[in-house]
Fold these 4 entries.
Entry 1:
Amino acid sequence: MDAIIADSIVKDFGSVRALDGVSVEVAAGELFFLLGASGCGKTTLLRCIAGLETPTSGTISFGERDVTTLPPHKREAAMVFQSYALWPHLSVEKNVAFGLEERKIPRAEIRQRVGEALDLVHLTGLGERGIDQLSGGQQQRVALARALVVRPKCLLLDEPLSNLDAKLRIEMRREIRRIVKEGGLTAIYVTHDQEEALSMADRMAVMNRGKIEQLGTSEDVYRNPHTAFVASFIGETNLIKGRVVEVRGEYAMVKTEAGPLVGRVTRPEWQPVAGDDVTLSIRPEAWHVEAASGENGVTGKITERSYLGQRIQYVVDTPLGPQQVVELNPHVVREPGETPVRLTARHADVAVLQVQMQVNMR
Ligand code: ATP
């Protein structure tokens, strides 16, 4: 088990800057996620760590070892791809044994290690099967066993569940986490699926345009987004424009189209001052629907309702624009119509975010 440290990584493909000075430290034994929209650079960063790309500048270390220029097979890292890249004409056992045969490991040891790897991914006894006799989820387990059999210190996963149906994906999330933790591996997992990341990650980095925009635990990133991009990429949110009137400690009063709202400054290294333009982020479940007039809120009318059993989703038309609202465990089902409703939010549930200059890099 090794820590993985990427320091100031820049990667250019011709005139395209895919990575723009990325630094990240993944702790030994951590399951770490790289998350972001298509083209943000997450696969490129993973490939630099695997040794499949060489950074234009910056260094990559595994523990104390600088591996920046080491070829992939000398890094003790194994990669699992979206397309499992299995040999369809070989048995499960032969597929898993492939990396060990290449390394000229003695036959008896190969048999033992393949057995252990199949046990770990819960495919005990299926070694003789052909790849085409397996379900999608089982094929993904074979790909994992093949990566694990070489006893890597680091496991690098590139959208490993994208080819599975929704139910299997959820089952395999638990499985991959178990395998990483039982195997004592340091793992980096690339996905654009925020739910996968929220449910599995020890920590995650949200990437945008070749940079890490925020890094933290699932709970921290969800509850304390630092930018509007992160707030809307991780989970649903309502974004509201405003201007700071007054700041008290970590709380700020913000003037909006519908009067003042008090919120919390979520990015510790930023201190707003009166007059700053800001964006407020309010999660759909942070809005409470009330009939009476409550403090820290806005009045509107329900225009849409979707009843989903354990929750109800409403769209409420307000002077701040349409607000997405979610009521969990609803006891009252409200009707869309003319009757005004009041949406209110706790101060701590309103994130006050700095308005960022959008610099177009490409
Ligand atoms: P996706 O989720 O679509 O896989 P990503 O976040 O993994 O996206 P990357 O594949 O890392 O993104 O790509 C980052 C940027 O670098 C993109 O603009 C992409 O077009 C560019 N890029 C990646 N690989 C190459 C390459 N071999 N040659 C030229 N440009 C590349």
Entry 2:
Amino acid sequence: MEAFLIKGGRPLKGKVGVSGAKNAVLPLMAAALLTHEPCTLEGVPHLRDVRTMTALLKALGAQVKREGERITIHTSPSSAWEAPYNLVKTMRASILVLGPMVGRLCKAKISLPGGCAIGVRPIDLHLKALEKLGANISLEEGYVVATCPRLKGNTVYFDKVTVTGTENILMASVLAQGDTILENCAKEPEVQELAQVLRAMGASIKGEGTDTIRIHGIEELKGYHHRVMPDRIETATLLIAGAITGGEIEIEGVIPQHVEAVTQKLREAGVDLQVERERIKVKGHNRPRAVDVTTLPYPGFPTDVQAQFMALMTLAQGTSVITEKIFENRFLHAAELQRMGAQIKVEGNKAIVKGVEGLKGAPVMATDLRASASLVLAALAAQGTTWISRIYHLDRGYERLDEKLAPLGAHIERVKEKP
Ligand code: UD1
């Protein structure tokens, strides 16, 4: 296992580019199961989750070829239909193959995704929606088994806004018989991009980016060739890196509209931002102002940036309240930040963060993907050396973050974990 060794207290300076969006790539890779034609994705980041999805598609009989930032996926007509436990357990987003498999093959057997550090994260809404489209679902020895004749269009209301749930059922319904109406849908840019790509494959879809998506099922889909959008969570993380170190950096190749909820909060906190068409310049000052944040589905403040924003607020002038409304147990980073001198009190789904003048380096442990990013940010700002263990969590969703931060002046080293 690897760890980061970070010597903090240096303002970051320079230009940095953003990689392709993990949460867009994973559903798009799964969508390749909907056609027997080849599908090509450009701008695919080198991430552990992408490798897991690649292995999963291969286990399902697809050929997956990677050349640099391009991935080509070709699903054979006689695909396997079982997604094994050893792959699914390492990545919850594996559930994204369920919709396309049931949609095209009319059968799927997928291991139930395991528990997850940030909460229970059930898949009941995915299964309920598939049943509404006519699938028979049973649970057998830890596996979800779904079978059907051909799926049939229907109206599906999601009790809760779910990102992968919306994506899964969207993919299942494009090949269903008749019309499907999905209500209370997720509006995330990644859901919108999936709908656009499915349309390029020949699907008939209207309303992505709103609460209601309407799909008219068709018989067959073509392949696609698509460049994936920039990662908005990485963009936000880099913005906070500039702000928290009192640095001055330019983040290139971004879609500013996707991070508006974050840039608005950063401005409230007194961070200087200059937003252009595809770049954002950020300039941090001594200590930010304390601002309150509540996570919500898009276009609200993303839960995936909550931990990173908390790192910034640990150094604020005043006290901020961070309310987590998406996942029930997403404050595991608070205890680690406290080891570096932060003052945080967690009460239910609220974290009360009393800003301190400075953080001090300490040995800390990454507990989940975005929590790891918050520890990196805190370490960049802290005086002294921070040792962050278990950074495999970070490598799931950030492409070579250490190699992006080092040219900006960060002292960050990837080392072997202490025994
Ligand atoms: C996706 C993102 C993840 C992000 C999250 C919220 C991907 C691959 N992952 O995860 O990075 O943090 O959206 O923006 O895109 N829920 C149920 N039953 C279900 C499904 C969800 O109760 O069947 C609940 C969840 O426990 C959670 C809420 O709904 O409380 C939202 O979760 P959801 O949007 O489904 O998250 P993911 O799609 O797993």
Entry 3:
Amino acid sequence: MNICVVGTGYVGLVTAACLAHLGHRVVGVDSEPLKVEMLCRGEPTIYEPGLTPLLQDGLRSGRLSFGQDLAAAMAEADVIFLCVGTPPRHDGSTDLSQMEEAARQIGERLRRYKVVVEKSTVPVYTADRMKRTLAMYSGGAVDFDIASNPEFLREGAAVDDFLNPDRIVVGVETTRARDLLLQIYEPFRCPLLVTDVKTAELVKHASNAFLAMKISFINMIADLCEATGTDVQQVADGMGYDRRIGRAFLNAGVGYGGSCFPKDLSAFIHIAEEHGADFSLLREVRRINETRVDRLVRKLHQALWVLKGKRLGVLGLSFKPNTDDIREAPSLTVIPRLRQEGAVVRLYDPHAAVQMASVIPPEPGKVEYARSPYEAAEDAHALVILTEWEEFRALDLEKVRGLLQTPIIVDGRNLFDPAAMAEAGFEYFSIGRPDALRPRQPQAARPRGAP
Ligand code: UDX
């Protein structure tokens, strides 16, 4: 099928490359010339595992191309996927100006029937507005359909999520639109749910809100585990074996970030307010998440007492592993807090350091960027872990201990076993688990016969 993808950000680029991989002819359109140039050369504009070969194969086979000219890109297309940005506004609602502009531009260039599909995450009723805009700018003479087909792609696993989804949700108003979309997804063997458009729009927000709720729930339990000397990971395991609950998204830590959960939760709360529904549960989910950085900083105080003048190695800057994305990452809040308290930070991330340096630039003697986790640990009073990169799990801990000025690790992602860390000579503070302090020196043997 001929497909046009409008917007080549995370969602658009992965969607375009994967649809071409499935055998469709896809044209990706973007208004940024530099982005288009890079993509035409086969250079991905984002770091996403598995994307480069799909992009390059697609270009080589001629099934995938990119351009700036919307009219040319949509001329042959039967289906247009809208993957433009839907950023948050100050009040938490969604800025839909890029969606509106896309609808206007598509409307003006509409010459024959097409299905226009929302893939970006949008509030319920967006399709209604899109439909009116498309009709207005196309002059009402050309037939079209609007549909919702939300993406559930996780950054860092987006290609795999696209090609092996848990489910596909298609919200349509006509059988013509349904048949075209089902044709695209014909090779998939997962459950395929066909709904009306508003329901599909709601599924996306409800899914992300539920996942965020699981994370805040386990973080709340983590606080009680700390107070009672129990282990949140064991509690999560015990809960997770219940198939009604599931173990996924029950990892306690320094909180969720990224371009989706914080934004989608606020948007969903805003939508509920507009429609008079009580979403105080989700307000609490958001509040709990916002307290996580405070708790981590408190742990650093517990470990180091005063932070002023201390050297801290910070491992992990992206909001989660396998991505270079730092949007809403806990590191963006943690690092300024540490600097405010007068700590000197040396930052390391395998992929996100360049992005972070554009927000928190290096300042000699205050903010430094390390080329390896070991360089970050050198002469530091403590290591702080903010992202669970595999590289950190595989660290040579003996080497790390030798490099640190004082062998302290504050782990915001529970990478290591506390008992093993104590055994290895660390003072180890993690989330929702007992602190592990170094084993005491063995007591001198008592004289035989002593009481
Ligand atoms: C999310 C949704 O998973 C995806 O379906 C949607 O389309 C976009 O939003 P993403 O933001 O890429 O994807 O990352 P995800 O893997 O869901 O993690 C989000 C955040 O939650 C990360 O900061 C992660 O560290 C945190 N998290 C996740 C936890 O703190 N604990 C967990 O158990 C799981």
Entry 4:
Amino acid sequence: MNKALRQAVIAGNWKMNKTRPEAKALIEELKPMVANAKVGVVICVPFTNLETALEATKGSNIKVGAENCHWAKSGAFTGEISAPMLAEMGVEYVVLGHSERRQYFGETDVTVNRRVRAALDAGLKPIICVGETLEHREANITEMVVGVQTKAALEGVTAEELKNIIIAYEPVWAIGTGKTATAEQANEVCKYVRDVVAKLYSKEAADGLTIQYGGSMNAKNAAELVAQPDVDGGLIGGASLKAPDFTEIVRAACQG
Ligand code: PEP
């Protein structure tokens, strides 16, 4: 079974939520609840919470990620944070190309690729987000859009480097809207991304790639989504802010 060739990962994307004391409280609540998880557990937190999260997760199975990084190593980029700065702290993952970055902050396929390059060079593991808008889906160009985003993000990435990458398929119309893709829709596009990667690299590389679904995944719908053959866990926004909900999703993935 191909699913056994890769690790399922449940990653929380906290977005712009939680002060430091709130972050610490959530992590302390979460730690014992997910301690025995057989899947990867990651929390991607605001920059201001990274140190708190790294300290609070020490010795646990929870890995810490950032929500973005700049492509330059350092320099005159006021307000930005570089990949080496994150790596030096001990951060392991970084979300790149999230649709909110593309929508509100001018992120493009080209800048996503530059950030991917910078993250890999610094030793970080990128969680690359791809996904279509409702207009794209209604125009029947979902595969084209997601294919272009995937190829652009992976431009210049070697097969060896691909082992440190996660792709998150996140239909834009499902993020924070309460509208979830059906399990079939999620699997169909995750499988398509895997096929694109197989053509770019090899079947072996594609079989080993973790491809998550993200978009209003919650404690109730997670089991069906993560049980799909090409869905290897999820990127979780809203539901990652409540320890019992996030834990339920982790539990579903352990069975998926
Ligand atoms: C996300 O932010 O990546 C996400 C999937 O959000 P939500 O789960 O809230 O839809």
